[in-house]
Structure formats: C-alpha cells, structure tokens
Specification:
The chain has helices at residues 8-16, 21-28, 32-42, 49-64, 76-88, 100-109, 114-127. Helix content is 60%, strand content 0%.
C-alpha cells in the first residue's frame, strides 16, 4: 500500500477543515447527536453529502479539540470519524462552505493525493479492532 508522507491525523484534520461545518449546521440545523446515534445503531449514514461533510468537520473539532479528546482511537467515535472520511474524502466542497485558507491549503497539499490518503486511512480503519464500549 502506498503511504502518503502525512500522518493519519493530519489527513483527517486537513480534509475535515476544508468544509465549514459550523456554518452548514447553523444554516440547515444538522442534528449531529442524532446522526451519530443512527450510525452507531445501523452502521450506515442516512445523510446527504453536505451533512456528511459537516458532521465530519464537527467530529474533528470534538475529537481533536473539545468534548471527545479523550476518546480511545479504537472507540466508536473514531470508527465513525474514519468511516465518514472514507465517504467524504472525494466529495467536492461547495464554494459557500469552503473555509478559505484551509481549503486552499488542502487543495495545494492534499487534493492530488486523495487516492493515497483514502488508501492510507482505509488500511488503518480496517486494521483496528474497534470496541464501541471502550472507555476514555
């Protein structure tokens, strides 16, 4: 498997921050808790592409900076985060939801490497024995 020169967390963060999830959630009323509960119950995302991108952004903020920073890397929130990445990585970000400087950085550093980034994260995702009951 070809490995990009970036680490998984860098890949996940850069892809998440290209989309302004706060702006989208405020404009359209995305219920992140319900979307996550539905995923945990079914293993499927019943969301539009933009809702997936917004939720991916919101999960990144929580996992890396806010409420979920102590969640284990093999827990259900990281499983959801990686699963969302695999669904949103190749999606186009609508201009009205692009985070200007962050989108430009993503475009310059990652856009041409989408297949390699997806393969890298998919490999990690497939190798983890997730435990939805794992405690922080």
């Amino acid at each position: 498997m070809a490995r990009p020169e970036f680490h998984e967390r860098d890949i996940l963060t850069r892809f998440a921050l290209r989309f302004d999830g706060h702006k989208y959630a405020s404009a359209f009323g995305l219920d992140a808790r319900r979307a996550l509960a539905d995923f945990f119950a079914t293993g499927q995302w019943a969301l539009s592409p933009n809702e997936k991108q917004a939720l991916f952004f919101l999960l990144q903020r929580d996992l890396c900076h806010w409420a979920l920073t102590h969640e284990p890397l093999h827990g259900k929130y990281w499983r959801a985060f990686r699963a969302l990445f695999l669904e949103v990585a190749a999606l186009e970000v609508p201009a009205e939801f692009r985070m200007p400087h962050r989108y430009e950085r993503w475009e310059n550093e990652y856009a041409a490497r989408i297949p390699a980034c997806v393969a890298h994260v998919r490999g990690i995702h497939a190798s983890i024995p997730y435990d939805d009951c794992a405690q922080p």
